[in-house]
């Protein structure tokens, strides 16, 4: 190839690059920048979601622990109630026995 042909080919390739390829590369780079920004936005949203999920998990654990404490208290209260009910039944029996004795004493006194 002669030097003139080489220059003409180089010049034609330069024009082709400038007129056809460079604008396409610029558009592709613009799209890449746009996609990068969107991905950053998405990552930011995911970070916010993870923070909320973490906070919800913490609150869930706190609620579960509180419910366990309440259940423990309720079991204790139920036990106390059962003991009180038994004791009341015993007292009712004792009062009934005392009432019988009083009635018996009153009858003896009246005789």
The overall pLDDT average reads 92
Number of helices: 1
The string of secondary-structure elements, in order, is: H
Percentage of β-strand residues: under 5%
Could you say which structural class the secondary elements and strand pairing correspond to? Answer: mainly alpha
Radius of gyration: 46 Å
Gap from first CA to last CA: 154 Å
Name the overall outline.
rod-shaped
Poorly predicted sequence stretches spanning 5 or more consecutive residues: none
Percentage of residues in helical conformation: over 70%
Give a short account of the largest sheet. Answer: none
Number of strands: 0
Total domain count:
1
Notes on the structure:
The chain has 111 residues and is mainly α. The chain has one domain. Helix content is 97%, strand content 0%. The protein has 1 helix and no strands. The chain has one helix spanning 3-110. The radius of gyration is 46 Å and the shape is rod-shaped. The mean pLDDT is 92.
SSE inventory with pairings:
Blueprint: H1 3-110
Summarize this structure briefly.
By secondary structure, this protein is mostly helical. The chain has one helix at 3-110. The chain has one domain (1-78).
